[in-house]
Design goal:
Layout lengths: L1 E8 L26 E8 L5 E6 L5 H15 L3 E5 L3 H4 L1 H9 L5 E5 L10 H12 L8 H16 L2 H7 L10
Parallel strand pairs: 4-5
Antiparallel strand pairs: 1-2, 2-3
């Protein structure tokens, strides 16, 4: 199972689009300041997806809460593979892992500076460039709703999630 975190902005991820002949496509937005929505996701080779969307950053307690909620949701022993971000290696997370009486969760790190090995990066690519491309949100609440809807779309497509593990850059298995 692979885990990762990403940030979404009110500004759209501009993608190629179509319009009437002779008319330039336009994206209208009225963003005054840069508001963000953050998300964490975990995916499995079997096509499972677990996510959390929030308006504040994922600091140490939030990372532990994500792992705790993941354990409750999937109800099985987990090997979580994630990058070497400081939030993943901080003392708070290490202490939480040490306190687990019968560990049902193990953490493994990807090599430094190798996001291409993480299939969860394919989730972000699909979200930002396919499902949320050219989406203009006026409020953080609207953005959070759109991101959640996009996650639900992916979550309901196990075959799509499994293809993230077959991406040529990931090379998880044939």
């Amino acid at each position: 199972m692979f885990e990762d975190e990403a940030t979404f902005q009110l500004l759209p991820s501009v993608q190629r689009t179509y319009s009437l002949k002779g008319h330039r496509p336009q994206l209208h937005t009225q963003v005054i300041n840069q508001k963000l929505v953050r998300a964490a996701v975990a995916i499995s080779p079997q096509g499972d997806l677990f996510y959390e969307v929030r308006e504040c950053t994922f600091k140490s307690p939030a990372a532990v809460r994500f792992l705790t909620n993941l354990q409750r949701a999937w109800k099985k022993k987990l090997l979580v593979v994630w990058d070497g971000a400081s939030i993943h290696t901080c003392s708070y997370v290490k202490e939480w892992l040490a306190e687990q009486h019968s560990p049902n969760i193990w953490l493994a790190r990807l090599p430094p500076y190798s996001p291409e090995l993480n299939p969860a990066e394919q989730v972000w690519n699909y979200l930002k460039n396919v499902l949320l491309g050219n989406i203009c949100c006026k409020t953080v609440k609207e953005l959070k709703t759109k991101v959640t809807e996009a996650f639900e779309t992916i979550k309901n497509d196990k075959e799509l999630i499994q293809t993230f593990f077959c991406h040529k850059a990931v090379a998880f298995y044939d």
